Amino acid sequence: MNIKAKLTIGIGVLVAMIILLVALSVVNLQILTATEPDSPAAAPGLNRALLWIAIVGIICIGIGITMLIRLPSSINKPIKELTDAITEIANHNYEKRLNIKDNQEFSVVSENFNRMAQRLADYHASTLAQMMSAKKYMETIINSLSDPIIGLNNEMKILFINDEALNILNLKREEILNQAAQDIALRNDLLRRLIRELVGEHPREKQEPLKIYADNKESYFQAKYMTITQPGKNGKAPEKKGYVIMLKNITEFKELDSAKTTFISTISHELKTPLSAILMSLQLLEDKRIGALNPEQEDLSNSIKENTERLLNITSELLNMTQVEAGKLQLKPKITKPIELIDYAIKANRVQAEKFNIQIEVEYPEDKIGKLFVDSEKIAWVLTNLLSNAIRYSAENSRVIIGACQTQDGYIELYVQDFGKGIDPRYHKSIFDHYFRVPGTKTQGSGLGLSISRDFVEAHSGTLTVQSELGKGSTFTMRLKA
């Protein structure tokens, strides 16, 4: 029976009961009216009329209450079943079905709902199968990578990790998946070192290779950090979804680099002996007691001397570089005045400055300046190299400034400023790399001086920076703790 029929019957019954009650009342009223009030039959007739009216009224009230309870319930029950079923579907329970047969309209709704639920279940099953297949495919790809890889979400929970990463971390997959990386890092030193770059407020720009014992040998890995983003909704800015940590095995390159360093160190040592012998022979050759040289011979002698000295400088730079790369750089710090380092650099470059008619100006505060606790030979070498570069890259008859100052935060800055053609901003970081030379530079050099200078300064926990503009010159600043 449909809802319309139920409502029609219910309203019809109520109307019929009302008509019956009214008709009964009218009939009894006419009977009572026709009876004489003093007649002996008046009282029984009145009582009988009231009884029938009461009985019919009670029956009507009972039927009305019954309909009041049953009729809304019969309509509300299928609606509630439908609402509950929709809620189950919304909660991804696609197995929910309706079985409403005592109501024509809801019977049709039930059939359509069941058909929809079945289609949703089929679609969910196929989509879930595709997702599981895609997930297994991605896991296969990740596990096939020879480099360790770890994926984390924004809350730093580990989402995936391949077998290589599990191997070097010495962990089991079921122990760490969907777990907070910080909690696991409390008992795993390597993972703590890896996520330090992600949780740190100021990640290091220069990351040293990680030395890890893996595959029964010492291996070196370079960590690479990638931020995973996806396009935002409605064309908004990309949203960050997590991170991926990838470790590149550089053991082979590290071994080759070590072999290169050993080779350069050996060659440099071997070259210094014959070069020193050449310089000694030149000194004997220039001795007037042996005999005077003609102008042509003197030019050749000077050329040999300059090239030999340049080779000696290069071998010295190579030896310094190999010491840094091999980790054998030994510092012998002592208390040193900044002015002493400046004087040393000026004396070492005086001949070169006079050759190009470069005026060296010293800027030094009149107030008392702090002292440095550094390896004076290493820092003097750095300052000498910076001043030499400033002279070489300056035009003739120009000036170069060398100076020192103390900052309010307790550091001493030693700086060298020239007014040459300057350095393109694109190369401000590259000039501190080994063997790098700014494209188009005609001045001779090995490309090692600034690299070694930076290593020496950083070995003292200091910094070496450059400020330069094309056409306005350059300023190199060495910042050390007082």
Automatic annotation (TrEMBL):
SUPFAM superfamilies per the UniProt record, alphabetical: ATPase domain of HSP90 chaperone/DNA topoisomerase II/histidine kinase, HAMP domain-like, Homodimeric domain of signal transducing histidine kinase, PYP-like sensor domain (PAS domain)
Coiled-coil region(s): none
UniProt-annotated location(s): Membrane
Histidine kinase domain ranges (all copies): 266-482
PAS domain boundaries: 134-179
EC number of this enzyme: 2.7.13.3
Catalytic activity: ATP + protein L-histidine = ADP + protein N-phospho-L-histidine
A Pfam short name: HAMP
Stored PROSITE patterns: HAMP, HIS_KIN, PAS
Chain segments annotated as transmembrane: 7-29, 49-71
HAMP domain ranges (all copies): 73-125
UniProt keyword list: Kinase, Membrane, Phosphoprotein, Transferase, Transmembrane, Transmembrane helix, Two-component regulatory system
Gene3D superfamilies, sorted: 1.10.287.130, 6.10.340.10, Histidine kinase-like ATPase, C-terminal domain (3.30.565.10), PAS domain (3.30.450.20)
Main location: membrane
Name recorded for this polypeptide: histidine kinase
Lineage: Bacteria, Pseudomonadati, Bacteroidota, Bacteroidia, Bacteroidales
